[in-house]
């Protein structure tokens, strides 16, 4: 029996449940194991406590041998390599940002000074660039409690990752989807990182067929923007990669929190095949270097 470590939230267990189902469909026994993290017990915003408390708890359980597999939202993992972990990246879900607004409204329909919930600096900065008048409010909790603040009338709208809504079965609640090339998502948004221990050859053999090479290529480019900028996953940094017919394209940006200034760079590279991760990493580093030359460090500060 393979034990799959996950946080206990509806979204986390649903994501890990998809991985479990794929493993079972391949002929292996697997079940979810809930790992309680310090972040689950805190009422502070994620941006204050850091998403590292969630990923670290899952990795600790993995390396202690309490579980054989850990499932993360890839965007929450540190960009530094963890040599003890073997990571498999399944096909990515839609990585666009979604607006959930009262009365079916879109962003342009919201009244002057509308109360919009999000705590992510990347989202705040891009919302402010589009609508400087918005009253941005902090947002904490699971998907259900966040959506409930719109239903109750406390907020006029919130912004969430569409991937999470889809996986949790709430895709129809989105009133607007933002084009990923215009409202840039977080690096690796919509992708899962499925980990086992590097020295666990049996579990590696189970997980490796779940790998989606095109997703891994795109995510590698996006995360190398973040790594080169030496920015955390809550910094106002965004990236979106797209792979088609041997061409990998990447768009990345760094934003002033008040929306007053944006630095955005784009580029592409021809890759020999979807296993050409070095080309993807190089493209990410190139765009990050351009952003730094244009003043990204000052904006992030």
From TrEMBL:
Subunit structure: Monomer.
UniProtKB keywords: Porphyrin biosynthesis, Transferase
SUPFAM superfamilies per record: Periplasmic binding protein-like II, Porphobilinogen deaminase (hydroxymethylbilane synthase), C-terminal domain
Catalytic activity field: 4 porphobilinogen + H2O = hydroxymethylbilane + 4 NH4(+)
Co-factor binding comment: Binds 1 dipyrromethane group covalently.
Residue numbers carrying S-(dipyrrolylmethanemethyl)cysteine: 233
GO MF terms held by the record: hydroxymethylbilane synthase activity
Remaining remarks: The porphobilinogen subunits are added to the dipyrromethane group.
InterPro entries (alphabetical): HemC, Porphobilin_deaminase_cofac_BS, Porphobilin_deaminase_N, Porphobilinogen_deaminase_C, Porphobilinogen_deaminase_C_sf
One Pfam family matching this protein: Porphobil_deam
EC number(s) from the headed UniProt entry: 2.5.1.61
The protein's name in its UniProt record: Porphobilinogen deaminase
CC cofactor: dipyrromethane
GO biological process: protoporphyrinogen IX biosynthetic process
GO cellular component annotations of the record: cytoplasm
Start and end residues of each Porphobilinogen deaminase N-terminal domain: 2-204
Domain Porphobilinogen deaminase C-terminal as annotated: residue spans: 217-292
